[in-house]
Design goal:
By secondary structure, this protein is of the alpha+beta class. The chain has a single domain, classed as Alpha-Beta Plaits, CATH 3.30.70.1530. Helices cover about 25% and strands about 30% of the residues. The chain is built from two helices and five strands; from the N terminus they run E-H-E-E-H-E-E. The protein has helices at about 15-25, 55-65; strands at about 10, 30-35, 45-50, 70-80, 80-85. It has a five-stranded antiparallel sheet, with helices on one face. A hairpin with a 2-residue loop joins strand 4 and strand 5. The longest helix is centred in the first third of the chain and has 13 residues, at about 15-25. About 25% of the residues are buried.
């Protein structure tokens, strides 16, 4: 799967939270990818989770169900080789 296939990226305040929610999403058959948080949006954790727009509702429910919330969620905007990030929440 290409990087541009993912529409959103979540960044967390801890590595553990990123890994945990990534694992929960995989168990729900959600196509997600654990990645290094881009410098532009990294808070204190170096891990982030990418996912598709079509899965946004399921991701939100899974975050709430597990009482784990990202520090922020960004929409990934690709322009050729460059990527920018638009804050969603």
């Amino acid at each position: 799967m290409k990087a541009e296939d993912y529409n959103y990226i979540m960044v967390f305040t801890s590595h553990h939270r990123a890994l945990y929610i990534y694992d929960r999403l995989l168990k729900k058959q959600i196509k997600a990818k654990l990645v290094s948080a881009p410098d532009k949006i990294a808070v204190s954790c170096t891990q982030a989770v990418k996912f598709k727009e079509i899965d946004m509702e399921i991701v939100q429910k899974e975050l709430k169900r597990n009482n784990i919330y990202p520090s922020s969620i960004y929409k990934i905007i690709s322009d050729g080789k460059n990527q920018t990030y638009e804050l969603v929440e």
